[in-house]
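Recall the central idea of this unit: under ordinary conditions, the amino acid sequence of a chain determines the structure it adopts. In this exercise we apply that idea directly, starting from the sequence alone.
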Amino acid sequence: METLKAQLERLREQVGALTVSQKMLVASLVTIMVMTMYFWGRYAGEAEMTPLFAKAVAPEDLARITSHLTAKGIQHRTAGSQVYVPVERKLEIIAELGFDGVLQNDAANVFEAMLARSSILSSAAQHDRAWNVALQTALSQVLQRFPGVARAVVIIDPTYRRGFNNTSVQPSATVLLNMKSGHTASSQLVKAAREMVSGAVAPLRPERVSVSVDGKPYAAPQPGSAAGDEFLERLRAAEEYYKGKVAEHLAHVPRAHVSVSVALNTKSRKSTEHKVDPAVKINETVEEDASTEEGSTGPRGGGEPGVLPNTGMSAAGSAGGESSATSSEKSRRKMIVDYARTDIHETDPGGDFAPVGVSVWLPRSYFAAMVKPAGPSGPPEEMVETVVGRELPKYRASIMKCLALEKEEMVHVDAYADEPAAWPAAEGVTTAGFAATMGSHAKEIAVGALALMSLFMVSMLVRRGAPSATAGPAPRPPTRISGEEEVLGEAGTGSAVLNAVEVDEEAVRTQQMQEQVASMVKEDPDAAAAMVRRWLNKA
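Accordingly, the structure predicted from this sequence is:
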């Protein structure tokens, strides 16, 4: 510490010897150094960010991905329609999004951003082969970061050719996974790996991706069918859901055992219903056409020369006949006479589940507690049976309402025998009641005990700090008066000059205080120590 003070003092003297211009130059250099260190530390602490996608992302997909990254506590930032993540965690983040099924249709966009561009001098075939190898490597690296996966290998055959007569060659892929020690593959892991690979290759369908985990093949589900593992997982989840619902409904009953059977609907149905209403008749013109035809006839010619002999021909000639005009109108109407009809199309995709059986066992001690105990052996058996027979139908009806069941035979409720220790006697009930009361007020009792302990400690400190009563001096024995002469004192010669010391009032008060403290230390050390502690606390 002294060395540091000496160096600072020396630096202050050197700076004080500088001129004003030199001091301004030094201040500028120090400011630049401080700002450089600040920005260096700031930017060195931030990770280098890289875009997650190669192309713009739809707003709804961007919101879903950013919400997932925020919920997982993953560092990221958005700019426009792009998401930026740390470079060193990009593969881990892609694996996280792919495993949780967040990427969906954006897998190809992600891998396009990961893969490097090929050379412009490469041919189309060379570019396709290099792209496929790079895609396989990138997929393997991402799948290797799935939970519990130790090693991943992806092989893709991108061959795609169309043929005649519905003959074509479709792309296919194979995924080989090796799990870490102590980890097993779940249906979610297999499904996520299959969807990740199929999403990275545009024409590749999920059912064309085969997955093998530790040498065990997992069959791909066909379209419209449910896989065996997925079916069992959904069935188990449905049973746990309804079991938890009944257990919560019976939370007031201790040691109640519940079992629920569930039927899963794996069939999809489509139906069309055609209804005709004869009370509503429809007369509607659908087509109407009208036409008009007009025509005319010319005048008739004169008579032909006669054929009778010796008959002269008229010199004026024959007069012409009269002309006439004709007109006709035609109209055609096409009508529909029908009844009102309604077409209803319904589609049931299936996949729903419903409880088909419930079994509930309740402890007899719960019903025995409703009867006042008659002795150490518990209540009479007849009284317990009466209570059981009265309460079981109520619980059966309550469970039917809880699960919306319609048939009573779907619910089985019965009582099972408890251990004898679970049947308390009268004295046990009193002890248990006292223990329950004490347990319910445990916080208040603990606070009271702490308060008493604190009060005791304070009283001990006050008692120790208080000055102890000192015994007064013992009374002297009475002085005996004698008739002899007694020497009262002796006088001697000494120096007549005294050394005078001039002191002020502050020195006198300090001297008096020192004398008082010295006397207090001799008489009562504890009180003196307490006073010194108070002085130190005030200082």
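The first strand starts at residue 49 and ends at 51.
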